[in-house]
Amino acid sequence: MKRILSTASTEFRIALRNRWVTIALVLMAVFSLVLSLAGSAPTGGLGVDRLSVTVASLTSLSVYLIPLLALLISFDAIAGEAERGTLSLLLAYPIAREEVLIGKLAAHLAILALAVLLGHGLAAGVAIWSDQSAVEGLPALWRLSWSSILLGATFLGAGYALSSLSRRPSGAAGLAIGLWLGLVVLYDIALLAAIVADNGGWFTTEAFPVALIVNPADAFRLFNLTASGATAAAAGVGGAADAIPLWHSLSSILVWPVAALALAAAAFRKVTP
Questions:
Q1: Could you give the CA distance from residue 62 to residue 79 in angstroms, rounded to a whole number?
Q2: Cβ neighbours of 245 (radius 10 Å)
Q3: In whole angstroms, what is the distance from residue 273 CA to residue 264 CA?
Q4: How many CB atoms lie within 10 A of CB 133?
Q5: How far apart are CA 238 and CA 56, in angstroms?
Q6: In which domain, by residue range, is 94 found?
Q7: Residue 1 to residues 4, 5, 146, 231, 260: CA-CA distances in angstroms?
Q8: From CA 37, how far away is CA 23, in angstroms rounded?
């Protein structure tokens, strides 16, 4: 545990000097504030409080932004050290590779948690300041916060795996962007195209719910839209939130961070400094 904490402390200080960390904090704060200020318009028609509607908007923001920031923070965690020649020095110490990964994960997850809590705290403050009934949406905002951190952990683990496989930061960066585009953007487009082509057949009724759950980004979106009580504000794939049991999406959210870290550990064990 002491070695993990030492690694995490070192990585945290290094991450604070990373420009992506500054970008993460600024983007989460600015976008959360803007969405909170703009979130009151539809509340009357939806019959829910302002903060719950803001949570639905923040969910759409987080499903794109959190994975991207996690990958930008983690893509050079292994490849960068290998290129700089510090990986061989790190592995020369009496510390297991799994402990190195857990230490890096703890530091980077702390950075993401700081960005998430800052943004969500600002959103909650603005919503409650302008509408006292918005306190009813605090449980949904809390669910969004901790599930956002778990989503970040999933993509941090994926970033470490890609960083271990590529061995060069430039290659890892390309793989990270490709993964983000594939899982967060193109995956949903492909699902919607398949639904249109299927025209209410087997894929729509049987395969589509499973396809949503196995994607960590979609499982995150479904879980939070259902929990916020503002599913009427959702569109596209998010509109399926009411049709899928909550525990299905929750299970995916809980399993994926562990699976991603296990994949990263397996890839890191094959790295030779």
A1: 27
A2: 12
A3: 16
A4: 14
A5: 10
A6: 2-269
A7: 5, 6, 24, 42, 21
A8: 21
**Domains in the chain, number:** 1
DSSP result, 149-193: HHHHHHHHHHHHHHHHHH-SHHHHHHHHHHHHIIIIIIHHHHHHH
Q: H or E segment at 94? A: none
Q: Per-residue confidence of the chain (273 residues) as pLDDT tens digits?
A: 777 888 888 888 877 777 767 777 788 888 888 887 775 554 544 456 677 778 888 888 899 999 999 998 899 899 988 888 888 888 888 888 899 999 999 999 999 999 899 999 988 888 888 877 778 888 889 999 999 999 999 999 999 999 999 878 889 999 999 999 999 999 989 988 988 898 878 888 888 888 889 999 999 988 888 765 555 445 555 555 556 777 888 999 999 999 999 999 999 998 887
In the chain, the N- to C-terminal Cα span, in Å, equals 24
Residue 126 near residue 29 (C-beta atoms within 8 A): no
Write out the two tokens for 122: 């600002």
The one-letter amino acid code at 45 reads G
Q: Read off the pTM.
A: 0.89
Cβ proximity of 257 and 153 under 8 Å = yes
Residue type, 259: A
- Hey, what are 114's tokens? 């700081």
**One-letter amino acid identity for 28?**
M
